[in-house]
Amino acid sequence: MTKINLTGTIVPNEDKWIYDEFGIAATSPQDISEALDNAEDDVTVLINSGGGDLFAGNEIYYLLHESEKNITADITAFAASAATVAACGASHVRANPGAQYMIHCVSTWGAEGNHADFEKMAEILQEADRAVADVYELKTGLDRKELLSLMESEKWMDAKEALSYGFIDEIIGAEESIPSGARFFNSISPVLSTETIARFKDRLLNPYAGKDHNTDFLTRQRHINLLQLKGGQK
User: Fold this and answer.
1) Whole-number Å distance between alpha carbons of 80 and 138
2) Please, what's the largest Cα pairwise distance for the chain?
3) What is the dihedral of CA 150, 156, 160, 162, to 10 degrees?
4) CA–CA separation, 12 vs 116, rounded Å?
5) 3-state secondary structure (DSSP) of residue 27
6) Which run of H or E residues covers position 142?
7) Distance of CA 33 to the CA centre of its chain
8) DSSP string of 97-135?
9) Residues with Cβ < 8 Å from 110, sequence gap 6 or more?
10) pLDDT digits over 144-187, tens only?
């Protein structure tokens, strides 16, 4: 399997050298094309990009969609704007459980002139939005009106929501079995282990197990138990 990086800003081929000159992460259609030419039959495109040039994103979509190779897109951290368009070109899209996915309307800074020029630019932008929605429609099966509404709201999604809308096909690791009784933590505070808690509960609920019911003995035993439990913290 070959891994191809689609990271940083998506840029036209003719602008890539400028980003390289300044050390700014960027990906052009030519980068993807050359990588595909040298790739094995199974390809994973690793996506971490906030988008960029829409036409370059559309070209990458085409390269992935029309490739004869088996292409999976993995959203490792972030996919937004033109990067989501490019991702739709893969035959299968997965996302890291902590990834973010964002879609919005097309924008430009190229407008100037009188009111007629700005009205014309507004029409062009609306047509571009519809074209992007058409790509999303092919991927998700949602109708264009709903997709345009999501784009106008600048829709941010976590992996689960992106999956529910159909923008991705799988959450990485979601199908793997989780050991029964497994617990997961996100803490900087001391946390008692599952084994320690189980032992403590057992000794409280069964204080006489295998012992004489002498009161003094039980009192001393509880003190010993507590000291042992303190040593079991993790």
Assistant:
1) 18
2) 98
3) 50
4) 29
5) strand
6) none
7) 24
8) TT-EEEE-----S---SSHHHHHHHHHHHHHHHHHHHHH
9) 121
10) 999 999 999 999 999 999 999 999 999 998 865 445 455 555 45
